[in-house]
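@channel sequence for tomorrow's demo:
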Amino acid sequence: MQMTSAVSEKRRVGRPTVDRRDEILDAAERLYVAIGFEKVTVTDVARALGMSPANLYRSFTNRQAIDEAVTKRSLGAVEDAAWQVARTATADPALAFERLCVSIALKMGDLLFHSGRASDLCLAATRGNWPPVQQFMGTLHGVIRHVIAEGQRQGVMRADLPLEETSGAVVSAMIKVWHPVMVEASGVADLAQETTVLVNLLLAALLRKN
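structure tokens (generated this afternoon):
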């Protein structure tokens, strides 16, 4: 009995299982593109990696968890690019605002139409308001707030506008060219032009008049 207990204890505290989350997400994305998001099963993903579904479930509790992780990773790339632009606001807040709005719009268009990612998954996540989408929209609010705050601090943007409400209003105005469902419905042919029009209108309201 003591020997059996010792063996069990050795297995329990032994070398941890290799984390294969990124491999699983890569395989899932490839399958989503190849055969369609709705047709892929957990068994398909496991088979593509030469592993059993039981082993896959050690990394993700269910198919929804995989889908949310893929969505978070895809939208995370847009978030990272947005913050990279937002941090240039110290040099020129107005230019950073323009570049930020355009960058998000074009990257959403690329995600849905050109990147080979599973756009159906992104749309399903948006329509279902999944947690990664909620986080994404919160991040967009944060990067806009960051740029406007810097513009107000430098005296470039109107300080009489309440920061939180103003950044929220900007996000609401940009939804047409940022929101995956809206972008998918409108297409990308006029995306850049529509974004530029919106940005010019918003900057006209935000910038201090000399």
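heads up for whoever presents: The longest helix spans residues 63-86.
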